[in-house]
Specification:
The protein is of the alpha+beta class. It has four helices and nine strands; from the N terminus they run βαββαβββαββαβ. The protein has helices spanning 15-31, 56-72, 105-118, 138-150, and strands at residues 5-10, 41-44, 48-53, 80-82, 86-88, 92-99, 122-127, 130-135, 158-160. Strands 2, 3, 4, 5 and 6 form a five-stranded antiparallel beta sheet that branches. Strands 7-8-1-9 form a four-stranded antiparallel beta sheet, covered by helices on one side. Helix 1 (15-31) packs across helix 2. The radius of gyration is 20 Å and the shape is elongated. The mean pLDDT is 89.
């Protein structure tokens, strides 16, 4: 039996599920009577997606449908970082949506400090864009998970490699 147990805290999402949700969104946009003629385009890049559509009203409708599709595919809405919409040529509106992935250095330090201040029996190490939390008892690690779940953060957290 192992002396210590550990798990990793990461902020990530399933990219294939995101692609599937965007495919469903495109399908619904081509079928809905209020969005059919808006010529809405959704482009997925490595770390962002761009929505180009006819007006602010249709942009709001498209983002609502996007949120529904992500929720149905068990993707957190916290991965989306909506930027301000801007007008582009031809009376069209474009919005950049950045995709949040990984823990920033500041957030990792904040989470590490929070765990160290509240739980004395675990140790925290920052490893790139994730945290590794180790302890002698699985119960202590469960307390750390509950503490982190209770934090109100702008990113979605996942807990992996529990061993």
């Amino acid at each position: 039996m192992a002396d210590t147990f550990s798990f990793d805290v990461v902020s990530d999402f399933d990219r294939q599920e995101l692609v599937n949700a965007l495919d469903q969104l495109r399908r619904e946009l081509s079928q809905r009577y209020d969005l059919k003629d808006s010529k809405t385009e959704i482009a997925l890049e490595e770390s962002s997606l761009t929505i180009t559509t006819a007006s602010d009203m249709t942009l709001d409708a498209v983002t609502d449908v996007l949120r529904q599709k992500l929720t149905k595919r068990n993707l957190s809405l916290k991965i989306l970082d909506f930027q301000t919409a801007e007008a582009v040529g031809g009376n069209r509106v474009q919005q950049l949506v950045k995709l949040r992935k990984g823990l920033s250095q500041e957030l990792a330090k904040q989470l590490s400090k929070s765990v160290r201040d509240n739980l004395k029996k675990v140790s925290v190490a920052i490893q790139g864009d994730s945290l590794r939390i180790t302890g002698k008892s699985k119960d202590d690690l469960q307390q750390a998970i509950q503490l982190l779940k209770g934090e109100d953060l702008e990113v979605a957290l996942q807990f992996e490699n529990f061993r």
